[in-house]
């Protein structure tokens, strides 16, 4: 009777193990299942892919969305367009300001050239031919006065005509005298002041043009920002806005997942870290492709521990067993993978 009771207990334990799935498993990392097969270090983890958050550098209203979730995109592809009508109006306004300022610059430069020529004349004196011209003008004015005096004495012309001729003769004489003797110091000083004023006007207008061109450059940059493009090749995994929605800078608008560079981050306990080396080639099994074996390479071993996977016990020598992150990149993948897929990485013996 006791034998039957013992047999019944044994059968109950076996049945419990079968129906609860409780089989001896060696847990080598904190929250990841790690299996040992023929003394190989096999670590369970998940496929990881880099998510790139796409936002805008200018606020505004979404005019058009060019993609949807699941679309594959290349770097530079247009994802969405922000309404830029206001920016276009600013661009036209600034361009008009630049054109006006350039016209003002031409006028200021012409005035400067005239003032410089006048100063040069005052400083250097008249050329011989200019003196001859002044003398000829004076001689002609003198002859005219003599002729009109005879007519005036005869009563043939009014006194105003004779007075006007005398005035013109005096002006011609003064010019002739100046041409012979050169400009007075005060005349040179006045000419220099005109040149200085003209230079200041040119510099002021040039400053206005530079300021307007800088403003135009800023508007053009913002116009470029109105077209939001893909920063990397990948798949659109999130579209968080709709056409017509008002957005601000820094908002996560779209997420592009880089599916062409899948990796696996494994948590390896320190007691097994001797089996892992940088550039080490590993094999990877992904249950989604149960008949496929993928190749990978260790590209990073964290210098600092991530967490303790086992606390100090008598079994492990009274010390905490720490876990280190090990990144594996797949090297020959030609299968469509998804972020989060279960993966088993075999580091060998």
From TrEMBL:
Question: Where's it found, cell-wise?
Answer: Cell envelope
Keyword hit for Coiled coil = yes
User: Which molecular function GO terms apply here?
Assistant: efflux transmembrane transporter activity
Query: Ranges for the YknX-like beta-barrel domain?
Result: 267-345
Which top-rank group of organisms is this from? Answer: Bacteria
The Multidrug resistance protein MdtA-like barrel-sandwich hybrid domain covers 52-257
Coiled coil as a keyword of this entry, yes or no, is yes
**InterPro entries attached to this UniProt entry:** Beta-barrel_YknX (IPR058636), MdtA-like_BSH (IPR058625), UPF0194_transport (IPR050465)
Keyword tags: Coiled coil
Q: List the GO terms this entry assigns under cellular component, sorted alphabetically.
A: cell envelope
Q: Which Pfam families match?
A: Beta-barrel_YknX, BSH_RND
Residue spans making up a coiled coil are 91-118, 188-222
Q: What is its main location?
A: other
Q: Which SUPFAM superfamilies match?
A: HlyD-like secretion proteins
Q: Which PANTHER family match?
A: BLL5650 PROTEIN, EFFLUX SYSTEM COMPONENT YKNX-RELATED
Q: Could you identify this protein by its name?
A: Efflux RND transporter periplasmic adaptor subunit
